[in-house]
Amino acid sequence: MNRNVWLFLFALAAGVILLARLGRREPSPAGAGPSSPTQASSSVAVPDKMVTVSRPAPAPETPAPAPAPARPAPAPPAQSLPAEPPVATPEAALQKLGRNSGLAFSAGAKVLSFGDGGVPDPTIGFYEWVVVSPTPLALPNGLQVGDPGVSNLPVAQAVQLVESKMGDAKVENPQTAFSLSWQKNVFAFSGTWVRGLGADYLIVQQTRN
Q1: Is 153 exposed, middle or buried (0-12, 13-18, 19+ CB in 10 A)?
Q2: pLDDT tens profile 110-155
Q3: In this structure, what are the phi and psi dihedrals at residue 49, rounded to the nearest 5 degrees?
Q4: Where are the domains of the chain?
Q5: How many CA atoms are closer than 13 Å to the CA of 180, on its beta-carbon side?
Q6: Phi/psi class of residue 113: alpha, beta or left (left: φ > 0; alpha: ψ in -120 to 50)?
Q7: Is the confidence at residue 182, as pLDDT, over 80?
Q8: End-to-end CA distance of the chain
């Protein structure tokens, strides 16, 4: 056989094989693109679940501001205390001492010096008397020498103190000395006593309570 015959047979055999292969392939639907494996979509019913939605916690309530405490009423203005009438004579000074302090003076008692120290301040009420009495004076509030509240003093020092306020007068025959404090009316008093054989010598100071 010549070469052309062999070529024809070879081409024919190839065409038969090609047709056989094409006949085995299933036809694709018209208009369909290249075949690709399709995954079956399965519909799975999911049971309803109760969904608890967490609500945000409510913001804390801001407490109402406490009412401001009521301001105390302003104190009434301090009333000015009346000044005691001025004392011009030793006799008037002795009467003032007896009236304010409650001391009882016998006849012959006299005031050697008196005054407010140059500062007549009614709020303090300071006043001082230096007195000599020819007879022993009764102590205020029924006190006696030696009772609690009656303090013994060194005689020499007490005499020096009293004489420093007596001018030219002197304490005669001093025996004992003591001091005490008491209150009467609206005043407080302190007294320094020197008791002699024939007289009492004393300094009394007054302040307002």
Answers
A1: middle
A2: 999 999 888 777 789 999 999 999 999 999 999 999 999 999 999 9
A3: -115, 140
A4: 90-208
A5: 21
A6: beta
A7: yes
A8: 163
> For 70-107, what is each residue's pLDDT tens digit?
676 666 555 555 666 677 899 999 999 999 999 999 99
Q: Which of 161, 151, 153, 207 is nearest to 183 (CA)?
A: 207
Q: Which of 52-56, 89-93, 118-122, 162-166 has the lowest average pLDDT?
A: 52-56
184 and 140 in contact (C-beta within 8 Å)?
A: yes
Separation of alpha carbons 105 and 143, rounded Å: 16
CB atoms within 10 A of CB 186: 10
Give the global pTM. 0.60
Q: Where are the beta strands (DSSP E) in the chain?
A: 110-115, 127-133, 151-152, 174-184, 187-196, 200-208
With a CB cutoff of 8 Å and minimum separation 6, the contacts of 149 are: 143, 180, 181
Phi, psi of 130 (to 5 degrees): -120, 120
Tell me if 204 sits within 8 A of 187, measured CB to CB.
Answer: no
Distances (CA, A) of 166 to 42, 55, 110, 159, 202: 131, 97, 12, 10, 10
Reported as type and span, the H/E element at residue 101 is helix 90-101
Q: Is the pLDDT of residue 42 over 50?
A: no
Task: Please compute the mean of the pLDDT values over residues 53-74 and round it to a whole number.
Answer: 65
